[in-house]
Design goal:
By secondary structure, the chain is of the alpha+beta class. Strands 4-3-2-6-5-1-11-12 form an eight-stranded mixed β-sheet. Strands 7-8-9-10 form a four-stranded antiparallel β-sheet. Helix 2 (53-71) runs antiparallel to helix 3, helix 3 (76-89) packs antiparallel against helix 4 and helix 9 (261-272) crosses helix 10. The protein is globular and about 50 Å long. The protein folds into two domains: 1-30; 31-331, 4-Layer Sandwich (Glutamine Phosphoribosylpyrophosphate, subunit 1, domain 1), CATH 3.60.20.30. It has helices spanning 2-28, 53-71, 76-89, 133-143, 151-159, 174-184, 190-194, 253-258, 261-272, 276-291, and strands at 32-40, 109-115, 121-127, 148-150, 200-205, 211-217, 238-240, 246-251, 295-300, 306-310, 314-321, 326-331. The structure holds aspartic acid. The site of aspartic acid has 15 residues, from strand 1 and strand 8.
């Protein structure tokens, strides 16, 4: 009797192990990417006459380009760089061309990138002439002994990296000029414009199970005194660790920095063993709301799970994976 139950227990155990290994195997080659184009208050009338179709098209283009890198066997670092670069080039989003303007009328750009396999990271802030800030962040990570470069020094480094530099006017669009004017004239609640809608980011997991995160932004309209948001701050706006997850954030940076949002989500996954979804919800809908921080995040884990959580009325976002899921959305469904 005793032997029989032990035998049965062993059989049960071995089938659990088989099932677990099978699902781990299945997930091993799972690739996934998620992107965002900013969170905040997005009144429908500000979406333009096409009701957001151009934003969706921009998100689709970046999502599919990033996914194509993964589908072709490329790594997650290349996938997030590709997606973010395209969003930087799209004038609708608050990164690269079309970035929001600082108090003095200039665009001032921040970006960061992190690789979960090595914990290598690169970040840049206060750029005025680098066409694609995400490319410079990646060069800082790969070609410099440092992690975080700022302003003139960062641009001096860019000159050694064969990157495209442009006059600041390249970034400035009529829409962003109008937004700054309205804030300066006190015609709109600074808080609305300060949401800095349109920060961009991407997270991805490749077929090797390696994850990466990237974020790029112009920050907030009317920012002054060299203000730096969360986007280029490793741990706040961007974080990636193969032991937990990769996160890119968007929202009111001052709150995201103080809550160390991206790292906090990964820490809950790593130390508490929570699922990505549970950890993301706890930080975005729990801690951040309690502290008054509006915004959202996208995240992936090495198993291919994707989380997209926001506590604002909307977040431009998209995800695609090798299980056939593909989604582009702006508002809560
Ligand atoms: N997080 C960005 C910043 O504070 C802005 C945004 O994501 O909307 O600079």
């Amino acid at each position: 009797m005793r032997i029989t139950s032990i035998t049965m227990l062993l059989i049960a155990f071995s089938s659990i192990t088989v099932a677990t290994t099978a699902s781990a195997e299945k997930r091993k080659n799972m690739v996934a990417i998620a992107i965002h184009g900013g969170a905040g208050v997005i009144p429908r009338d500000q979406l333009g006459p096409d009701d957001g179709a151009s934003y969706r098209a921009g998100l689709s283009e970046a999502l599919d380009a990033g996914y194509a890198v993964l589908a072709a066997g490329g790594n997650s670092l290349d996938a997030v760089t590709t997606a973010v670069r395209l969003l930087e080039d799209n004038p609708l989003f608050n990164a690269g061309k079309g970035a929001v303007l600082a108090h003095d009328g200039y665009a001032e750009l921040d970006a960061s990138i992190m690789e979960g396999r090595t914990l290598a990271a690169g970040a840049v802030t206060g750029l005025r002439h680098v066409k694609n800030p995400i490319d410079l962040a990646r060069r800082v990570m790969e070609n410099s002994p440092h992690v975080f470069l700022s302003g003139a020094g960062a641009e001096e480094f860019a000159l050694t990296q064969d990157l495209t530099l442009v006059p600041n006017e390249y970034f400035v669009t009529p829409t962003r000029k109008r937004q700054l004017e309205r804030v300066l004239q006190g015609r709109v609640q600074a808080r609305n414009e300060l949401q800095g809608l349109g920060t961009v980011g991407a997270v991805a997991v490749d077929a090797q199970g390696n994850i990466s995160a990237a974020t790029s932004t112009g920050g907030m309209t009317n920012k002054r005194w060299g203000r730096i948001g969360d986007a280029p701050v490793i741990g706040a706006g961007t974080y990636a660790n193969n032991a937990s997850c990769a996160v890119s954030a968007t929202g009111h940076g001052e709150y995201f920095i103080r809550s160390v949002v991206a790292y906090d989500i990964c820490a809950l996954v790593e130390y508490r063993g929570w699922t990505l979804e549970k950890a993301a919800k706890e930080v975005v809908h729990g801690k951040l709301i309690q502290r008054g921080g509006e915004g959202g995040i996208i995240a992936v884990d090495p198993q291919g799970n994707v989380a997209m959580q926001f506590n604002s009325p909307g977040m431009f976002r998209g995800m695609r994976d090798s299980a056939g899921r593909r989604e582009i959305a702006i508002y809560e469904k």
